[in-house]
Predict the 3D structure of the following.
Amino acid sequence: MASSAEIRVRIPQPDKEDWGDDAVFVFDGLVDLYEDLEGGKADANHTHGTGGVVFTICTSTTRPNPPALGMFISETDTGLTRRCISTGPVTWSSPLAMRADALYQRRRVPLWLGDGQASAEMISGSDNPTGMNVLKYPAAGEAWDRFVHDVVVAGADHRVFIQHLMTTAQAATCNLGVGYRVVPASGAIASLPLNRWVKSTAYSLGDKAMNSVPNGKYLECTTAGTSHASTEPVCPAVGSTVTDNAAVWTARDGGLKPLGVGATAVPATAYSGAELAYTIPGAECLAGGKIVFALFRKIDSHGGHLYVLDAEVQAVEV
């Protein structure tokens, strides 16, 4: 049977018109690989690696020890898939039962869509001890990140999984918050207010801003002026106004909603972490819609960096 590497080498370039014998080799190899997976012929504790991601087939009692941070395992005796989210102590993510129906499997979400305002920083595996590409929320700082995912199954609850760790072991907790808004198929993400309020900034009539912690509302500038030098305005009830130094804001409905703020577990050792899970109600997940997420870290007393390793979305079977 051909290996995946051998198959990849034989795939013709897009500008090559005639596949010739390559077509037979590639398709036969793919069929062989699929049959092996379908028939469960893979050996226990067989490890594959591609693009820096390690995937191991094992059993629930023969998991790699020690594992590589970020590696995936597929347990042949339970049918579950897990990911290593900490190596000290060893911690595996919540299990995902493998199903034939791909609609209900976890889907990875592209993480980095920074907003230009103290955005979280994407750093490569070569620049941090985890060896993985991660989203870094720096210590003693405030940072945001946004990402978007399609509604997978209309009317079904959607679970959001955030896998993260802290770079230092401290008693102080660190909070990672998640906000969201489901934009209907007829709507436009561009119309969703996603710029956060900024201190000492000249705002014009009609400008929109959101508070640093999502509350389901946004602020619309109804009197032009410069914002306060340090104090963020508290968003009032929808339709009410709040004075912000020389500017005046009116609260509007339609901002990002709070999905949850998860206090990270106090890490026993550096580079240990956990997985946070939240649920978006199925009633909001309409066909053709897009879910806009925001991850945020407010200034806190934990002196370590917060690394987000992965974000995934999974429709809950109805």
Remarks:
- The longest strand covers residues 306-315.
- The domain at 104-189+257-315 is CATH 2.60.120.200 (Jelly Rolls).
- The two ends are 39 Å apart (CA to CA).
